[in-house]
Write a sequence for this structure.
């Protein structure tokens, strides 16, 4: 009888963990602003700043989605398709994919822990948000709507 209770507890724990992962996976969160003494008076509000040279592509006039991917990552392919589709219809919004394996220094600098990770970068290069995992279309649309506000 004890074995049945242990099994039920393990199944319940796995279901709760799966639900929590699904709820948090791909959700965009804003990044913390840098301390006031970092970078001087004219430094961007974010501690993380990227240039076109860093990401190997141009920054968008409104927003850039920088996707860190790896070759073996299945959710990376789905994220690429989603972001490419969304930015195709938006002026001033770019999507740049960065191979995490080939850019380990940048991955370490930005504390990228898994792929896909999508950074939201403003026109000045400041990282204003990030999501780990496969985002949903409505999450990406919400980021674009908040940039318009």
């Amino acid at each position: 009888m004890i074995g049945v209770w242990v099994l039920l507890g393990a199944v319940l724990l796995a279901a709760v963990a799966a639900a929590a992962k699904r709820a948090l996976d791909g959700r965009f969160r804003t990044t913390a602003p840098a301390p006031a003494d970092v970078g001087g008076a004219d430094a961007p509000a974010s501690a993380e700043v990227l240039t076109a040279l860093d990401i190997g592509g141009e920054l968008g006039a409104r927003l850039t989605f920088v996707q860190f991917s790896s070759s073996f990552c299945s959710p990376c392919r789905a994220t690429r398709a989603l972001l490419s589709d969304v930015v195709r219809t938006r002026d001033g919004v770019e999507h740049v994919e960065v191979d995490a394996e080939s850019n380990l220094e940048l991955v370490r600098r930005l504390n990228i822990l898994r792929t896909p990770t999508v950074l939201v970068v403003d026109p000045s290069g400041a990282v204003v948000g990030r999501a780990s995992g496969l985002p949903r279309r409505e999450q990406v649309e919400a980021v674009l709507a908040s940039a318009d506000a």
